[in-house]
Write a structure and sequence with these properties.
Layout lengths: L1 E6 L18 H9 L5 E7 L20 E4 L2 E4 L23 E7 L22 H7 L4 E7 L4 H11 L3 E10 L3 H13 L3 E3 L1 H5 L1
Parallel strand pairs: 1-2, 1-6, 2-5, 6-7, 7-8
Antiparallel strand pairs: 3-4
Length: 203
């Protein structure tokens, strides 16, 4: 069984959102195109409580994108984003959600950030995604979404560590930083991930 993992296709990560990924809205049509080609489609959703410790606004005198620390882990301080129950946390309106069988929310603990759909950044708590996929008989995961150099990258890393075959759908992800994405891509390739395109998968 192959699963399509749609990572954080939320309003705050597309142009107009508080933490917009350049060109992030272009991923949505590709995500819709890909879904019918998979037996299982799962989505992740960044779902922060207000005042989350990863927000620059929770640290007086600090600015977004500065480097800080949160509970002993290095932490990029982000603009407030994907706050539970706000429009910014909702899935992008153009995303076809009919085939999404499960949604895994992350970043819910105010004391630790969670880039990956599988674990928080300290690997202290699991979201249950790996067990869910194994329970469905999934052996290979295909990742698309936002941002390629953060949440998609860390989800791919954890998927590899959990023993899944990993395919990164390169054109169906967008990065915050081209340099950061190049580093992430090199790292994933060295660890055994494969890079594919939407056209290859829907052919």
């Amino acid at each position: 069984m192959q699963a399509l993992l749609l990572i954080d296709l939320q309003n705050d990560f597309v142009p107009g959102g508080s933490l917009a990924v350049p060109g992030g809205d272009a991923v949505v049509a590709l995500a819709n195109q890909l879904q019918p080609h998979f037996g299982l489609v799962v989505a992740t959703q960044d779902w922060h409580p207000a005042g989350h410790g990863s927000f620059a606004s929770a640290h007086p005198g600090r600015q977004p994108f500065e480097q800080g620390e949160l509970n002993g882990l290095p932490q990029t301080l982000w603009p407030d984003h994907c706050v539970q129950g706000t429009p910014g946390a909702e899935f992008v309106s153009g995303l076809d959600q009919h085939r999404i069988e499960a949604i895994f929310r992350k970043g819910t603990d105010p004391g630790i950030d969670s880039y990956s759909g599988f674990f928080d950044n300290g690997h202290r708590k699991s979201t249950g995604l790996a067990d869910y996929l194994r329970g469905r008989g999934v052996t290979a995961v295909y990742l698309a979404g936002l941002a390629a150099d953060f949440c998609v990258y860390f989800s791919a890393l954890d998927a590899l560590q959990q023993g899944f075959q990993v395919f990164f759908i390169e054109d169906a992800a967008r990065a915050i930083s081209p340099e950061g994405y190049q580093q992430a891509r090199t790292d994933l390739e060295q660890r055994g991930a494969q890079f594919v395109t939407t056209a290859e998968l829907v052919a």
